[in-house]
Amino acid sequence: MFFCCASVNYAKPKPLDIYFVDVEGGAATLIVTPLGESLLIDSGNPGDRDPDRIAHVARDVAGLKQIDHYITTHWHQDHVGGIPRLATLIPVIHFYDRGLPENPTSDISPELIAAYKQTVQGKSVTLNPGDEIKFQSPKSLPSLRLRVLAAGGLVLGEQPGVPQIKPCGPHFQPQPEDKTDNVNSVGFLLTFGGFKFFDGGDLTWNIENRLVCPKNLVGAIDVYQADHHGTDVSNNPTLLRALNPRVAVIDNGPRKGGDARVYATLTSLKEIEAVYQLHRNLRTNDKENTMSGYIANEEEACQGNFIKLSVEPGSKSYTVSIPAKQISRNYRTRRSG
Ligand SMILES: [Zn+2]
Fold first, then answer.
1. Ligand 1: distance of its center to the CA of 235 in Å?
2. Which residues face 317 on adjacent strands?
3. CA-CA 20 to 30 A from 55: which of 4, 30, 62, 200?
4. What's the rounded Cα separation, in Å, for the pair 114 and 81?
5. DSSP code per residue over 121-149
6. CA-CA distance, 330 to 262, in Å (whole number)?
7. Which of 230, 232, 236 is nearest to 275 (CA)?
8. Helix, strand, or coil here: 63?
9. Phi, psi of 262 (to 5 degrees)
10. By the 8 A CB rule, do 225 and 198 touch?
11. Along the 337 residues of the chain, how does pLDDT read in single tens digits?
């Protein structure tokens, strides 16, 4: 007697992988699902360096033949700058953004917008709070969901015209109104079974407060990509306390982001287990940087080392590693039971 079923896939299930590519103070986060579908969030700066690094991780490390989905969180050059060249290095299929700016403010480069338009050829999709990007997700694996919680200056449930500064909460302390495109960033929650990851682009202080007050729209998470490269005009402690992450990854550069106050807030959180940095912040001291084993790039003249996070297929635990340093540590998911 033998048992056979041709439709059963005996291949070992793959993890959900997240790569934090070093684009030196820009953003480029690559997610690869257990079925090999891919999503890139932001594409670093213009020029060759950042698109080349992203293409290297996508093709040579993750083994991708194409990028299925690509989100530009907002229109600053350290987020949208790399996509025109990247799209010549590896096919990019679906484009999403916060909406093309009707009246670009002075912090948005018309040349970058023109280059983006040329790349997407009219095929970009505007994301709004509540939208989802669908992935193939077989029943045998934990469910995989990406939900947009902020975009275009609004958070989930808000109507256009809402003031940026909305008093809320016992510790409400606004910062001056942010007139840049940072406030329009796409912010989303990725859920894979019990694992939760939040990426808020460059969202800033006042809108961060609205994400968690009066209602915490994000919930408690496992992994937090520090908003705005860990800059202290972002990373409102009210947001960080509400998200209560166990692991934070700061996509800073040697002299950009990873601010001392943000590092102090992150390490003061109740359940924080580790803070990772793409770069040592050379403007602050050792106590204001995470430990050496959690920093992907120590020197300013760096190799562009990336950080890799792998969630095991059952979603009960995940590993964060810095492959170039052969360092790896395992964490349990918050809802692993
Ligand atoms: Zn940025």
1. 13
2. 332
3. 200
4. 11
5. TT-EEE--TT-EE-----TTS--EEEEEE
6. 24
7. 230
8. coil
9. -65, -45
10. yes
11. 444 444 444 567 899 999 999 999 999 999 999 999 999 999 999 999 999 999 999 999 999 999 999 999 999 999 999 999 999 999 999 999 999 998 878 999 999 999 999 999 999 999 999 999 999 988 899 999 999 999 999 999 999 999 999 999 988 999 999 999 999 999 999 999 999 999 999 999 999 999 999 999 999 999 999 999 999 999 999 999 999 999 999 999 999 999 999 999 999 999 999 999 999 999 999 999 999 999 999 999 999 999 999 999 999 999 999 999 999 999 999 875 4
Residue 170 CA to ligand 1 center (angstroms) comes to 29
Statement: the pTM of the whole predicted model exceeds 0.70: yes
User: In 3D, which of 217, 220, 215, 216 has the Cα closest to residue 195?
Assistant: 220
Ligand 1 centroid vs 29 CA: distance in angstroms? 12
Longest CA pairwise span in the chain (Å): 74
Return the structure tokens found at 277.
Answer: 């940095």
Distance 200 CA to ligand 1 centre (A): 11
The residue length of the chain stands at 337
Centroid of ligand 1 to alpha carbon of 7 (angstroms) = 45
